[in-house]
Amino acid sequence: MSLTVYAPASMGNVGVGFDLLGGALAPIDGSLLGDRVSISSAETGIHLSLAGHWADKLPQDPKENIVFQCAEFFLDKLNRTDGVKLVLEKNLPVGSGLGSSASSVVAALYALNEYFDRPYEEQALLRLMGDFEGKISGSVHYDNVAPCYLGGMQLMLDAPEKVCDAIPTFDDWYWVVAYPGISLSTAKMRDLLPAQYDKSVAIDFGRYLSAFVHASYRQDPKLAISVLKDVLAEPYRASAIPGYEESRSALSEIGMLTTGISGSGPTLFSITDNLQTAQKAQAWLDQNYVETGKGFSHICKLDTQGTRRED
Question: In which domain, by residue range, is 198 found?
Answer without folding.
Answer: 174-302
